[in-house]
């Protein structure tokens, strides 16, 4: 089990200072505008999941977060001197015979961290699928937080409209180049740092869920955005009264929502505030009430061990890895729907 970025910072006594200096900022969620392949992912302390891809000829390997909350692929480049690039693999265009410079710059802001660089084209290998002429970002600067990430880069799986620099996302190219059997990919996230996490391109893996799949139509085709009817604890509506918008996001560790709603949930489950976090007594975790997300007429329940992160700057809920660990998630581009089924 590797250490997460937060654990590394806590070990050095830097977490409290760091979270004040670089607060979680969901600005990335305020944007105005014939084959099945399984890619195994490493579970980093239940806080991040990443897999290995290759770029170039001959292939250069990188670890990336498969992020349904963004749309660009990028990796560090040999032209980057930020601390975050010093401790990660860096792509060298000069060592790839198939690389072409796209002649445009790239700048992306994430919930934690940011990067700038330029765009290029090359062959990208993902889970045994070879995607030709994939536009991707080569970082030249990366924010300090990225130095604490285990993964080298990010592979975005949201809609093209969200992509910076008019890049075509990797899964769109898989569809356009007829590399997948169905225009679907699905995600299974393991629990308790266990092995077995996987993103399946082109289909659904029945080994990773039980019962039926609940299909939920998207409310917007930018993120994987859906309408949540309400959030209840002990049968009482505590948040999202009258409905709210949420995105299913593999790139966010926790569940994120507006501060007032999160405070009400925290109160309903018996937590208290300490140093800006909602804290509970470890001995009472198993007796904490469940939090229920009511979506499209169905109840999706999270047991009392769920951790909820505050986000004061957005009205959009983020159903992150805490949610996806419980519910196998299917991202259907053909019908623009999300499918959720109880994970095995």
TrEMBL record:
Pfam families noted in UniProt: A1_Propeptide (PF07966), Asp (PF00026)
One GO term (biological process): proteolysis
Keyword terms of this UniProt record: Aspartyl protease, Digestion, Disulfide bond, Hydrolase, Protease
UniProt-listed InterPro entries: Aspartic_peptidase_A1, Aspartic_peptidase_AS, Aspartic_peptidase_N, PEPTIDASE_A1, Peptidase_aspartic_dom_sf
Molecular function GO labels: aspartic-type endopeptidase activity
Keyword GTP-binding found: no
Location of the active site: 67, 249
Top EC class of this enzyme: hydrolase
Bridged cysteine pairs (disulfide): 80-85, 240-244
Ranges where the Peptidase A1 domain occurs: 49-341
Enzyme Commission numbers on file: 3.4.23.1
PANTHER family the record matches: BETA-SITE APP-CLEAVING ENZYME, ISOFORM A-RELATED, PEPSIN A-3-RELATED
Family: Belongs to the peptidase A1 family.
Purpose of the protein: Shows particularly broad specificity; although bonds involving phenylalanine and leucine are preferred, many others are also cleaved to some extent.
Name of this chain's protein: pepsin A
């Amino acid at each position: 089990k590797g250490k997460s970025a937060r654990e590394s910072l806590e070990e050095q006594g830097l977490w409290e200072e760091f979270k004040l200096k670089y607060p979680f900022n969901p600005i990335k969620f305020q944007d105005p505008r014939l084959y099945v392949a399984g890619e195994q992912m490493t579970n980093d302390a239940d806080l991040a999941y990443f897999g290995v891809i290759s770029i170039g000829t001959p292939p250069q390997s990188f670890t990336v977060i498969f992020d349904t909350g963004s749309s660009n692929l990028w990796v560090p480049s040999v032209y980057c001197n930020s601390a975050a690039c010093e401790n990660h693999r860096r792509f060298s265009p000069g060592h790839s015979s198939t690389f072409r410079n796209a002649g445009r710059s790239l700048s992306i802001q994430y919930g934690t961290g940011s990067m700038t660089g330029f765009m290029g084209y090359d062959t990208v290998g993902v889970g045994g699928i070879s995607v030709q002429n994939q536009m991707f970002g080569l970082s030249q600067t990366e924010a300090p937080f990225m130095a604490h990430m285990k993964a080298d880069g990010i592979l975005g799986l949201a809609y093209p409209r969200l992509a910076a620099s008019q890049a075509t996302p990797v899964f769109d190219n898989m569809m356009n180049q007829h590399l997948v059997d169905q225009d679907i990919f699905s995600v299974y996230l393991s629990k308790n740092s266990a092995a077995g996490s996987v993103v399946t391109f082109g289909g659904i893996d029945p080994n990773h869920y039980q019962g039926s799949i609940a299909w939920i139509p998207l409310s917007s085709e930018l993120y994987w955005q859906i309408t949540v009817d309400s959030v209840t604890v002990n049968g009482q509506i505590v948040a999202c009264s009258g409905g709210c918008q949420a995105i299913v996001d593999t790139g966010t560790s926790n569940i994120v929502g507006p501060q007032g709603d999160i405070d009400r949930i925290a109160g309903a489950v018996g937590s208290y505030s300490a140093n800006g976090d909602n804290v509970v007594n470890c001995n009472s975790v198993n007796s904490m009430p469940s939090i229920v997300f009511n979506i499209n007429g169905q109840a999706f329940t999270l047991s009392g061990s769920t951790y909820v992160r505050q986000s004061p700057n957005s009205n959009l809920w983020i159903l992150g890895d805490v949610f996806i660990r419980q519910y196998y998630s299917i991202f259907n581009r053909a019908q623009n729907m999300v499918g959720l089924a109880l994970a095995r």
